[in-house]
Amino acid sequence: MRVLGIDYGSVRTGFALTDELGITAQGLETINANTDKQILKKIDELLDKYKISTIVIGMPYSLNGKKLERALITEKFIHKLKCKYNNIKIETIDERFTTVEAHRTMNFLEVNKHKKKNVVDTISAVYILESYMKKQKNI
């Protein structure tokens, strides 16, 4: 069974997925979605295509660990996930610095600045998923 990682955003949402053994995380895609309905539709497609046992979503805390408006919006989305997918484990992981790390990775790889916008959320979803995987292994 696989784990789906999500970098949830108000404009773009990134997705990543583990391999079947749960050893590696691969970026899937970023979708431009202005509504939760569009994101849930994408999740439905991924659930139809892959055997997913867990969904991990990044929780956007502030630098001092407090919940700001974006975290509250994310919590509402997580509630929708839990209601719709009540047979799938839904987890959260602290996503502080995942976007910063994604930009560092893209800079290191010299990704064209025009392409960065389209992949940053996918890479962030990979980092969210990897953080979750490390947590599960107590690393």
Question: Explain this structure to me?
Answer:
- By secondary structure, the protein is an alpha/beta fold.
- The protein has one domain (2-136): Nucleotidyltransferase, domain 5.
- Helix content is 47%, strand content 25%.
- It is built from four helices and five strands; from the N terminus they run E-E-E-H-E-H-E-H-H.
- The chain has helices at residues 36-49, 69-84, 98-108, 113-136; strands at 2-7, 12-18, 25-32, 52-59, 89-94.
- Strands 3-2-1-4-5 form a five-stranded mixed β-sheet, sandwiched between helices.
- It is globular and about 40 Å long.
- 30% of the residues are buried.
- The mean pLDDT is 86.
Task: Detail the topology: elements first, then pairings.
Layout (H helix, E strand, L loop, with lengths): L1 E6 L4 E7 L6 E8 L3 H14 L2 E8 L9 H16 L4 E6 L3 H11 L4 H24 L3
Parallel strand pairs: 1-4, 4-5
Antiparallel strand pairs: 1-2, 2-3
Helix pairs in contact: 3-4
